Amino acid sequence: MPRVKSCGLLLFRDGPPKSFLLMKLPGRYDLPKGHLEGRETELQCAMRELHEETGIHAESVELDPHFRYTETYFPRYRRFGGRRVEKTLVIFLGRLTRPVTTLRLTEHDSWEWVVWPPYRRLQHRTIDPLLARVASYWAHRDDPDFSVD
Length: 149
Prior knowledge:
This protein is α+β, with helices and mostly antiparallel strands. Helix content is 18%, strand content 39%.
């Protein structure tokens, strides 16, 4: 079975109100993320994809060095003839350090800053579990026995 890895970033802004960035595609939400290229690291991939898909530069983001979310699932990929692949998703956590008023979209129809914590479910497969992990991480980050992975 082919394997692919995508890396991205869950980006927060302080507000008020505190909110996080979601990209929009027809019928679903997404994150700025994409596939690893060449010899880049997961973090390099995530920051490259953030810039490519939103126009936000890495210099405008402060990363949380202790948060790394991973999930593996088995979607069908057109580039593999519609076959199932083992896809690993790696998401880092960041915070805007400079105001961003508009985004430069390349792969999505639009975007939305969603108030934290969200009052509704957003996407049960990837985004909702990620947001639950972030909430748990923030609630327990001072606990020395707590692990994000």
